[in-house]
Amino acid sequence: MNNRKTIFIIGFALFASFFGAGNLILPPQLGFNSGPDWWLVALGFVTSAAVIPLLALFGHARLQGTMLDFGNKVSPLFSLVYCLCVYIIAIALPIPRTAAVTHEMAIQPFFNTSSILTSSLYFGLAFIFIMKRDRILSLLGKFLTPLIGIILLAIIVIGLVSAPENMNPSTLDSPALIAGLLEGYQTYDALGGVLIGGVVIISLNLEGGVSFEDKKAILIKSGLVAAAGLFIIYTGMIAVGALHNSEFEKTITRPELLTGLSLKTLGNVGNIFLSVLISLACFTTAVSVIVGTADFFKGLFKESQKAYTITAIIACILGVLIGQFDVHYIIVIALPALMFIYPLTIALILLNVIPEKYASPNVFKTVILVTFIFSIPDFLGFLLPEDNLQNIKDLIPFASQNLGWVLPAIIAFILSNMISLKKARLES
């Protein structure tokens, strides 16, 4: 096996998997709202949308198992429930968003049709591909990702060179670093890292003849390739959104801003080309994730094809129902789910990356339990009136920034390790 070639092939495949077309609409508006603070926002966004997913791949490089292995040190039941939650969130939120992005970027500007018609046709066609599992999707993915990358790099370079001198001030309600970090949740890239890393390990196992250390090196190095690509695109689009924020209305939507930036930099032809490519990339992402989810449930029910078909039908129905809403609405309704699953995901990723002597099963259980408990106010904060939780949030550091779980989780990690160390000394 040519390891160098394999590293780049897998690296570009990982980049394509993380770089869902729906994510393109997030960085420009983040920069647009942050103004001169765009670099702080970019730092936070890249942390949660590129660094954390990269660490997830590092975790898989060590475990070399499946997604279920990420939570097994807590308990097999917890791991199963966690995986079910991740897959359910995947088909209920980011996948319908791909249809909404397609409608707002490629259908609505050119055709006077309803969003329900778009989402119905979109997921009707998706269901056909899911059941056929046609290889055309992988072929499209190989060509689409480089093309979209080239167009975005052109937007970034031209946008940076042609930026006006004046820039509007920041309109962010929270510190720029925190705003970027939390917006990165909406990329779902950390969840993607946990999902995709296991798939890569399985693919390498099927090839055969690859040692444990070689698989570890390949996944780590290919992960760095993918993370570098994400860093360039995300940071560049945030910068362009910030530098051009004086040229658009403050109420502009995310898809409208991306369209506006592509028009300013590439003209009408470039904008149309980008809209078509993004729509195709959205479609391939939707089909791939639904197929992966259906395969997971098929495996749970002893390779039942019926379970595969039912999962695909449910996913497509959810896609039609939720995908008819506008992108902003889908992003807003996703917040409670993300505030629930993301803290657990980040904690699991970090625990699977650190040296094993600091991550015993007891440490896993303690940290995950504390993370879950202290993330509840953040989760409920998007479901209940803010006044109902204010007294609780005032007692928890960083809770007002929706990061109330962070310090308790760190303390739980330190204390549980100290207890384990003391216990080991007494036993010796």
Descriptive overview:
It is built from 16 helices and no strands. It is mostly helical. Helix 5 (94-107) runs antiparallel to helix 11 (254-300). The longest helix is centred in the middle third of the chain and has 47 residues, at 254-300. The N and C termini lie far apart (46 Å). The relative contact order is 0.17.
Structure characteristics:
428 residues; mainly alpha; Amino acid/polyamine transporter I; 2 domains; 16 helices; 0% strand; globular
User: Could you state the CATH homologous superfamily of the largest domain?
Assistant: Amino acid/polyamine transporter I
Highest CATH level, the class of the largest domain: Mainly Alpha
* Fraction of helical residues: over 70%
User: What is the number of strand segments?
Assistant: 0
Q: Tell me, what's the shape?
A: globular
Q: Summarize the helix and strand pattern as letters.
A: HHHHHHHHHHHHHHHH
Radius of gyration: 22 Å
Number of domains: 2
From the N-terminal CA to the C-terminal CA, the straight-line distance is 46 Å
Biggest beta-sheet profile:
none
**Mean of all residue-level pLDDT scores:** 89
What structural category characterises the helix and strand content? Answer: mainly alpha
Might you state the CATH topology name of the largest domain? Amino acid/polyamine transporter I
Q: Which runs of at least 5 residues are low in confidence (pLDDT < 50)?
A: none
The share of residues in extended strands comes to under 5%
Helical region count? 16
| CATH architecture type of the largest domain | Up-down Bundle
